[in-house]
Amino acid sequence: MSLFTSLYWREPLWLLLILLPVVLSLLQRRRLLHLRRQMMDERLKPWVESKASTAAELRLKAPFIAAWLLLAVALSGPRTALLIPPALQGPMGELIFITDLSGSMEAQDTELNQRPQARRDAATRLAQKWNDEIGERLEIGLTVFAGDPHHLLLPSSDTSLRAHFLEQLVALQAPTLGNNLSAALVRAAQALSSEAEVNYLVLFTDGDIEPEQRRSTVQTLENLLSDRAELSLKIIGIGGTEAIRLKDGNTTRLEYAWLRQLAEHPRVEYLNLLQADQTDLSQLLDLPAARIAPDQQDEVIWNEWFPLPLMLAIGALLLGLWVAGRSGGDYA
């Protein structure tokens, strides 16, 4: 979210006052040039004009010009939204949470909010947190996978409905064994509307899959990103980097090196669990602030910022008067 997209003006036409010093300066310069052409030969111009006096004049005027500009900003009423009613925050795109439910995600080697837990539980808690944060700004769906992918929820703007399905992940068991990440990416992308301006996939996984499946995943991801320019993928790597033994005797660890290789594409980004937990979803996806229509701005609670430029203008004015007083004394 940038300052440009989050800033509003109560009376934006007052900003036109910023142009007044420029207009006056141009008129004054035009008048001065006209007088010089009438009163002196052009060849004498270098001896008549004084660069030192021009610089001194600019130093005297600068605080007053700054004060004027700040007063124009204050009169325009800069403000940012403090509270926007949900009805004014329409969805800005679609997102699918893709959660890995393969056997390796049962490993108890992660910690979230200083609480040790299984990888899949950490993924669920993070998805729940992001669902609460983002509200209705995105339509969010949910896809899970192990041996095969399955849709739990198609993209929806209903925060409560999404929270209900995310809660089911705590006890959900995948009906098939394995880790078909390639098919999960395809299935999730198919659930996204191709008409949306932006689409996002957020993948929670440890990346612990066989070499052949890795090659298939790389090729599938390249095809998806090539075919759909509006699509981007965020990979959340979950698990410890040290190998841990599962109940079935197999060992597993977070394959962060391979997941980072996937993120070499400009529309793919990798974060570990700690980084993701410290990042808001809107920040992760770089969502712009939704602009509020003029006829709806009375329904918003605002932070009014006009006192800041007003106080700065007063300070600049006092500085200008002090500089002018000193210059007058030195001249005398």
List keywords for this structure.
332 residues; six-stranded mixed sheet; three-stranded antiparallel sheet; 45% helix
Describe the structure.
The protein is α/β, with parallel strands linked by helices and 332 residues long. It has twelve helices and 13 strands. The strands form four sheets. Strands 7-6-3-8-9-12 form a six-stranded mixed sheet, sandwiched between helices. A three-stranded antiparallel sheet has the order 1-2-13. Strand 6 and strand 7 form a beta hairpin. Helix 5 runs antiparallel to helix 6 and helix 7 runs parallel beside helix 8. The longest helix is centred in the first third of the chain and has 26 residues. It is elongated, with a radius of gyration of 30 Å. The two termini are 53 Å apart.
Annotate the secondary structure layout.
Layout: H1 3-6, E1 7-9, H2 20-39, H3 45-48, H4 51-76, E2 78-83, E3 94-100, E4 110-112, E5 115-117, H5 119-134, E6 139-145, E7 149-156, H6 159-168, H7 181-191, E8 199-205, H8 211-227, E9 231-237, E10 244-245, E11 251-252, H9 256-262, E12 268-272, H10 273-277, H11 281-284, E13 301-304, H12 307-331
Parallel strand pairs: 3-6, 3-8, 8-9, 9-12
Antiparallel strand pairs: 1-2, 2-13, 4-5, 6-7, 10-11
